[in-house]
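Sample intake sheet
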Amino acid sequence: MGDGLKLPSSWAETTLDKIILTLESGSRPKGGVSHYLEGIPSLGGEHLNNVGGFKFEKIRFVPEKFVQTMRKGFIAPDDILVVKDGATTAKVSYVTDAFPYKGAVINEHLFLIRLPKEIDKKWVFYQLWSKEGRQGILMDFKGAAQGGITNKFVENVRIVIPPFSEQRRIVEKIEELFSELDSGIENLKTAQQQLNIYRQAVLNYEFAKCSEFRNLEALLSEKLTNGYSGKPVLNETDIKVLSLSATTSGSFDKSKYKFLDEKNLEKRDIWCVPEDILIQRGNTIEYVGVPAIYTGLPKKFIFPDLMIRVRANSSVISTKYLYYALSSPSIRNSLRKKATGSAGTMPKINQTTLKELLIPYVDINTQKHLVEKIEFNMDSSRMLKDSLNESLLKSEALRQSILQKAFTGQLVPQDPSDEPASKLLARIKLEVIKSQPVKKKKA
């Protein structure tokens, strides 16, 4: 953590493995836990959020009888949990006294770290949660996309140790500054929400003037088409298939794709061309039905199975007019209501639902003027949106800057009367040694 940086003379530095009492993982019954509706809460990687806390919306359970057979993986206050595999490997959360489940356990996708009483647990947590801490954890990452870390990761993570009382002061200052930062971020997010409401109001106002409606099917140059996803590969190829995230924002993002390695795809009618409208036929309820205009190069990308391609008949409707109509609140709400899928599954719409969709209609010349009015309002709001997004990015950079100052002794003044951390570290290591089980000598 302190590599290349000068630390205060009263500080010490070590690796995570030298200061932990417990490093363990959990388990689950064979066959999974999706069918258990009650029992003991069991946490996995999906329950850790991005800010060091937890998401409890979709809590899982394991039977009490199974928990009685577990010898490790029991969550307690001040524990640090680390995701050990998958897409969120190295995500870290801290168990506070406010953790709502007593007796909860972790599954096999998490590590649990328990620390000695001689160290401030949150001080270590913030080091693991920082950008540098995450990089240290991931030094042990092995495998492809679904790879992970082993229990050896603790040997790679550098930890700086100030005097104990200074640890407390630094943590208090970090949390004071983070609280102020979080308040500012909430204000920015509120502004974003208000901006989205404004953009929706613009569409509502313009399309509410239309008195004529036509089925979407009557406005198309060709039939609706579902895409093709195939089986993605890790190696780079000439065939790119878009990810759902390429259009969830309502605009096209050419950086979101996967590679395919299959033959005979060149002649199939699954390639995007400019002016295609791609509609998400399956996603969370928030995003199902989201349209986006493809603005990439011809036949550069395949659109996936969970998107439906729409091609406007330019003699009766412009692509941009149709896109804005499909983006309007009334049509988006209509598609959400018609999406099918039971609780816990991905809601979907089908081609029949889209064909029968009623689109507010005006003649081509009026469409042009309406699009110009919409885009005039959207352009001004887009500038504000970009400014808000930039401010949010700066906020996250500021959070890391606060941590960097904390880890180099620049956040609070040092107290010369504090006991040097070298003595503290010696006691911590002694406590760790005493906590280890005694190995029996072979007869």
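Comment: The two ends are 44 Å apart (CA to CA). Residues 12-162 form a domain with the Adenine-n6-DNA-methyltransferase TaqI; Chain A, domain 2 fold (CATH 3.90.220.20).
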